[in-house]
């Protein structure tokens, strides 16, 4: 367990760096989720089948996994500033290309290219914030990076929908996202150039040797469980709310607004607990809260609509807190020389297991004649199990890190 730190608060320059990296993470998150509300609009305009619109999201996610894996192999010795800005520029260019796509296949091609840039970008963001922030405050800083996905849900998705429905069409939403990436590029180049990175202790370990280290695998396992468990539920949440629970579209909007808004608090709270008390108490707390929420939302007792709106919104927020714990715990694994490679590998793990979770959910669920989903209870049970397993993994990881510290 970590001891409470009396370290002074971050310097203004460090805080500005965290805010900037959080803004870039927000742009990356918007680029990831932008097609969620735009699917029907772009499918109709490009002559694609409505059920194929989900490919625009899946292709991006899987390509991000490949991009993260490539980053782990190729960027181990790269300058974080150059690699991060190049990835951000690539995301901007490919997002513009998606906005100009004349047909659905070219849109998918642009999304694949964008995912290849977004994959290493997330890893580089975590690596950059890990190098810029003292270890006693690192979990909260990583919480700000992860929490940007909640902000993307609260602000990004409604704005994308507003663009698609009347502010210039779905293409304008892509152009606006690309513009945000471009605007953040100059300050990122300037500010990251001013950061003094800690000296790397020796050359990078190498990807294969990194994967043979028990602590490295344990960190990746934490990320895999959080990513897989989240995507078991999230892709099917809206269908369950509308079809099984009879929730209105307006109530569903409240679910996402509540979840995104509360996540800004839960991700920071999770980071604070990790920094001040330790990751294990944070994991146990999240496991308890997650269990109660999942049992209430998908258990045998039928909840009133108002209560279900609150439960589903809190579920989205607590899932991001779980991701914060996993990412912050994994960030402690790598030494400075391995930081970029390992965080790119963590980003690839996130993308691949998110895709796996979504894929498994489609195998478990079955649509009944009345349009309701059968099998959400099984997915909720699996997600509950994946909320408690990290505590055991964290216990072993803490011992491994303590043993490594004694050797070093």
Give a structural overview:
The protein has helices at 12-33, 35-46, 55-74, 80-100, 104-132, 138-166, 170-194, 207-212, 214-244, 249-276, 279-298, 305-331, 339-364, 376-407; strands at 366-367, 373-374. With 408 residues, the chain is mainly alpha-helical. It has 14 helices and two strands. The protein has a single domain, classed as Up-down Bundle (Growth Hormone, Chain: A), CATH 1.20.1250.20. It has a two-stranded antiparallel ribbon with strand order 1-2. The radius of gyration is 20 Å and the shape is globular. A hairpin with a 5-residue loop joins strand 1 and strand 2.
Lateral strand order in the biggest sheet: 1-2
In total, how many domains does the architecture comprise? 1
Which oligomerization state do the chains in this entry correspond to? single chain
CATH-assigned fold name? Growth Hormone, Chain: A
Q: Which structural class do you get from the secondary structure elements?
A: mainly alpha
Listing every helix as H and every strand as E from the N terminus to the C terminus, the arrangement reads HHHHHHHHHHHHHEEH
- The CATH homologous superfamily is called MFS general substrate transporter like domains
Number of helical segments?
Answer: 14
Number of strands: 2
Averaging pLDDT over every residue, what do you get?
83
Helix content: over 70%
CATH class: Mainly Alpha
Strand portion? under 5%
Distance between the termini: 19 Å
Given the C-alpha coordinates, what overall shape results? Answer: globular
Can you tell me the residue ranges where pLDDT is under 50 for at least 5 consecutive residues?
1-11, 196-202
Which architecture per CATH? Answer: Up-down Bundle
Rg value: 20 Å
Largest sheet: 2 strands, antiparallel
């Amino acid at each position: 367990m970590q001891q409470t730190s009396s370290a002074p608060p971050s310097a203004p320059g460090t805080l500005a760096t965290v805010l900037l990296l959080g803004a870039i993470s927000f742009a990356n998150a918007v680029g990831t989720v932008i097609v969620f509300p735009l699917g029907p609009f772009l499918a109709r305009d490009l002559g694609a089948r409505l059920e194929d619109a989900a490919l625009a999201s899946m292709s991006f996610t899987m390509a991000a996994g490949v991009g993260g894996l490539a980053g782990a192999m190729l960027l181990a010795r790269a300058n974080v500033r150059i690699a991060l800005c190049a990835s951000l520029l690539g995301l901007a260019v490919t997002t513009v290309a998606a906005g100009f796509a004349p047909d659905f296949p070219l849109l998918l091609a642009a999304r694949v290219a964008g995912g290849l840039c977004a994959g290493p970008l997330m890893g580089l963001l975590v690596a950059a914030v890990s190098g810029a922030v003292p270890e006693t405050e690192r979990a909260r800083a990583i919480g700000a990076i992860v929490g940007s996905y909640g902000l993307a849900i609260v602000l990004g998705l409604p704005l994308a929908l507003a663009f698609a429905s009347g502010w210039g069409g779905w293409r304008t939403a892509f152009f606006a996202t690309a513009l945000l990436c471009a605007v953040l590029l100059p300050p990122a180049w300037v500010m990251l150039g001013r950061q003094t990175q800690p000296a790397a202790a020796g050359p990078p370990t190498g990807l294969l040797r990194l994967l043979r280290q028990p602590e490295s695998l344990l960190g990746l396992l934490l990320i895999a469980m959080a990513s897989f468990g989240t995507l078991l539920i999230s892709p099917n949440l809206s269908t369950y709310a509308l079809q099984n629970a009879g929730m209105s579209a307006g109530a569903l909007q409240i679910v996402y607004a509540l979840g995104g808004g509360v996540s800004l608090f839960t991700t920071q709270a999770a980071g604070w607990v990790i920094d001040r008390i330790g990751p294990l108490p944070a994991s146990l707390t999240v496991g308890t809260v997650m269990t109660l929420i999942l049992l209430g939302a998908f258990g045998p007792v039928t909840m009133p609509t108002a209560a279900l709106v609150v439960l589903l919104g809190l579920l989205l927020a607590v899932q991001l807190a779980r991701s914060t714990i996993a990412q912050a715990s994994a960030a402690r694994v790598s030494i400075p020389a391995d930081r970029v490679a390992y965080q790119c590998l963590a980003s690839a793990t996130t993308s691949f297991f998110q895709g796996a979770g979504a894929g498994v959910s489609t195998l478990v669920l079955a649509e009944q004649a009345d349009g309701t989903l059968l099998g959400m209870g099984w997915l909720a049970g699996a997600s509950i199990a994946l909320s408690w397993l990290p505590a055991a993994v964290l216990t072993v990881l803490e011992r491994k890190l303590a043993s490594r510290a004694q050797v070093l």
